[in-house]
Each structure stands twice: as structure tokens, then as C-alpha cells.
Amino acid sequence: MGDLFGDAAAEHAARTGPLAHRVRPRSLGELVGQQELVGPGTALGRAIAEGRAPSMILHGPPGVGKTTIARIVAETSSAAFEELSAVSARIDDVRAVIARARDRLGGNGVRTLLFIDEIHRFDKRQQDSVLHAVEDGLVTLIGATTENPYFEVNQALLSRCTVIELEPLSLADLERVIERGAGELGADVPSDVAGEIARRAGGDARTALQTLELAWDTASTAGLPLALGHVEDAARKRPLRYDRDGDRHYDLTSAFIKAMRGSDPDAAVYYLAAMLEGGEDPRFLARRMVIAASEDVGEADPSALLVAVAAAHAVEHVGLPEAQLNLAQAAIHLARAPKSNAVARAIWQAREDVRREGIQSPPPVLRDSHYRGAAARGHGTGYVSPHDDPAAALDDHLPEGLRGRTYYRPSSTSEEESTRGDRDGRQSP
Question: Per CATH, which fold does 34-165 belong to?
Fold first, then answer.
């Protein structure tokens, strides 16, 4: 009776469940997006189509096809499909699946495919509980996670799986998904409405279909054609996927820094806005700009450091939301400034020499002479201040063993060019 009820429930869900469930692809040919990974001619696509998919960890944001691919693997293989959610599953649940898998394989040669959703939620003991079954080939594991598996999945299990990174769907892919959903609903969706739904979905097919379904229900109930206003009402504000300790934090931070370094003020402001909307600490953003002011701009525009430090002070004194203006001004200034990493290279090279060769003593003429007995040791003897006699002052102040080395090599940009002077004549380390 349990099977009969289960079959009836599945049949009912296929007719009346959420739109995303009703139009879920059942084959690789129906899958929208991820074609560079599982499309025709790809190694993984062939393996899945031929029923020999390896154990794998599917990593990507929500709504990009992780669960769908797992179900397609199950459909195209002769394996029994077992599904666990790491949110609620216990070690006993995993052991029960493994026991059933052993019985199937020993009894009639049927293999088992185990799908674990949110596998990053399993702790080490839970992950270890499935390790030997995967290693022995007793089960084919497909884990799905929105987190970076290299951080969240233990190395022993990770080494036995192929890691597949899925990307957000493109606007064109989302419009295909919306077209399929519209067909299921029997809805007339104008192209501008479909485009707006796709833009608001942020690469997430599930969100696109949920928005379409709710907007269509709203329009139909009112007896009106589907319009942009219905999409606006259905979509509201998207929940922002941002984790201050995870991949999105590091990826957006990297993009923000590289946009400023690459002289792209529009991208710099966008990534700044994305992190602020995601709840990033504005002090962190200010610190990154203070670093970039010296690392990527330096003496090519010395005022960049003043602007960045001023923005950091503004964050402390003004706070958000007003300090977003100061942060944006600093980001734009840094992006538009001429670039030079000569300052960064100078300190990096000098510190490398210190680590490699130790701290070498300054020449006696430069040593402290403000104490009794310094003159007898020759400290400070013969020193001429450039304020007193520029012609007689030392040109090279480095320790004896480093004479002639050059750490600061001005670039050809802006103010640095004018400060080259006769330093260009020095020898490289």
C-alpha cells in the first residue's frame, strides 16, 4: 500500500506541484544550460548518457541544475536512486542506505546511486560514514552543495569524487526555461516580460519559474494579460546570496580590487554596491581601498592614498548609508587614477633581501651619533646633511653589501616619471 500511495503522490505532484517541479528536465537533451559540462560530446555528458557516471560533487548557486542532473543520472542508469538531505539525515540513515545498496548488489547486481543534497551540512563523521561505500564502488555518490567543496567536504571523500562547478544560467538560457514554463501554464508571455523575469532571476531557473507562475496566477485571477507590473509584484526584492566568510565574499572582493586595478570605475562601483547590499562590513571595503591606493596606484598619484584614508575615516565618523558616497568616491578615484605597483615591488623586494641575507648594518657614517663614545666608534663621522651641502651628501645610503641595488623603480606614469632623477643609474639587485 505504501508504494501505491507513493506512486499516487508522485503522479499528483507531477500535475499540480510547483511549476519548477513539473517542467524539470528528465534527460540531458532537455537540460537548459551547463552545456560546456554535460552537453553533447563532453566526457561527462557521454558518461551520464551511457549510464557510467562517476561519483561527483556538484557545486554551484541555487537553481542551476544540481538536483536535476542527479535525477537525470538516475534516469539514464540502471541504478536504484536513494536521496538524503544533509540537513535532516543522520548517520543511521546513511548506514541504512548502504545496507540496502549491499543487498541490491549482492541479490540481483543492481547498483545504487546516492544523492546527498546540501552535502556541506554533513560533519566529518557523517561524511566518513559514506566514504568506504564510495571507495568500494558500493554506491555512486552525487553530492550537491552551494558552498565551495574544497573547503566544506573532507579531502578523503573529495579525492574519490569528480568536482563539477555549475554556473548561473545566462539570460538566453533563462528565457528558454521561461518559454517551457509558459507552455506548461498555457500562458502568453510577451518577450519584454520574459526578459524582465530572466533579468530578475539572477541566473536561477527555479526563481524564474516561481516568478512566472506567481505573476501569471495574479494576472489570470484579475483577468488581465501578463505585464511587467505583475512581474514587479511577484518578484519583489530578490534574496541576495552573499556570505561574508564564503566564496561570494572572496570572489567579489577579488573582482572589486581587480576592477579598480584595471581602471574600470563602473565595475568597481558595481562590486562595491553588491558587497554593501550583501551586508559586507564597510570598514573591510575601506581597508581594501587603502591597500590598493599604495599597492596599485602608489606614487603615480599620491593623492589616492589620501582619498582612500579619508573614506576610511568617513566610514567611522558617518557610517552607512551615507558613507556609501565616500566609499564610491574613493573607488572611482582609485579606478581612474594612473597605475603603478612600483611602491609595492620596492617593499616586497627589500623584505625578500632582508629575509634572504639578514639585516645588514648601515654604514658607520649613517649610524646614531647622539651618545657619548659614538665618535670614537666612527659613528656619524663625515656625515654631511643635504640641507647643508647637497653636492657633498651621500648618494647611496644602503649598507655596504647592498650598494647600488635598486628597489624603487618608478614607472613611466604621471608623477613617478618626474621623480626618476639619477636613480635610474643604479644597478638591479
Answer: Rossmann fold (3.40.50)
